[in-house]
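User: Before I run my own analysis I want an independent prediction to cross-check against. Here's the chain; please return only the structure tokens and, at the end, one sentence I can use as a sanity check.
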Amino acid sequence: MNKTTPPNEQCVDIEFDKQHLWHPYTSMNNALPTYGVVSAEGVELKLANGVKIVDGTSSWWACVHGYSHPKIVAAIQQQAQQLSHVMFGGITHRPAVELARMLIDMTSKRLTKVFLADSGSIAVEVSIKMALQYWQGKNQPNKQKILTVKSGYHGDTFAAMSVCDPEGGMHTMFGELVTQQLFAPAPNSAFSESFDPQELSTLKQMFKDNHQQIAAVLIEPIMQGAGGMRFYHPEYLVALRTLCDQYDVLLILDEIATGFGRTGKLFAYEHANIEADILCLGKALTGGYVSLAATMCSDKVAKGVSDSPAGVFMHGPTFMGNPLACAAAIASLELINQQQWQAQVANIEAQMKLELAAAKHYQNVVDVRVLGAVGVLEMNATVNTAELQQQFVKLGVWIRPFANFIYIMPPYTITNIQLTRLTDAMKVVASQISLPNNDAAFVSHG
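Assistant: Structure tokens:
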């Protein structure tokens, strides 16, 4: 006899979910409410009660083309009929080769090697391993530290946790198991304001004092996502690239959240016209349809890794280079290469700037900021995520606040009318919100 009785296929058993399923950053003692979704199309989610709501999050920033896109769905279906999965050890296949070719063509010239991983967090793990093995191959095994900045977020696995914000991240919960890294102050000059070179003083001193042990610098270019939805000045990245070259340190750019057009450039590093030694990609890579990430590196890094004592790169996930995921990614990148995203993101940015401007005058709003297809209301205190989610659903939208931020990162395919529903809902809730409250939910990156 079964321990549980399955419900009708068209229903979502919320009570079973509440009793048995973990959700991100929730307690099994006092879980946040969940909403059953039975289907999705375009930029709308259909709830179990038949109500359709506009998705303002792109399912954590990934579904840039919207849901049920015929091109991506067809690519997955066709690939499933041919080859759903095969081990990548000693075997290759067309989707992996073609995807690697596309990524090399799309990114900066020095990035010529591609490691296909499972998720964003693993892409970051892989990048850190690459940096450490590179210096082993250069006979400098003492270079084992990663320099990063405060207010960053790079994933939930252990090496990724070690480079997340040391105060707002997860470091204190796991003690000595989390490697102690080096943290510079967060970039301070805002994207749209003048750059203050004085903010580099501590960073420069850290390079000078610690470069002999620093393997790499790891940073989210232009936008710090889950660490505070902060947009910083491109000149900071220019200076960082210069310091890495001056002190012989690798530069790792985490474009998992920003890659493929989100900030108005194909990749956020293009705002600064720099190149990474190692690049992490994920989320929108497959259009959000299948979990896949990529870590790319230069010939120099690949040679150093291969010259290390191990002689090989020490990582190999079971589902590395999964054909279904690669097929979805190829279809997603073909849509990106049609260049429609440029006009779409520009239109989203202009509309959000216009429609969110009024919120600057709300009592509880500290700041309103927009960059590309990212719109943020920073509140003056932590919000009640469960309460606000309920209000947003009643208003016909899906917006998931965290900490003291109400933000949207909608699919690029959103219409003007649908986007207005999102911005109107943000303003309604922000204007009526009762603060402070300490019930916060962290937002995932990986």
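Sanity check: The chain has 14 helices and 16 strands.
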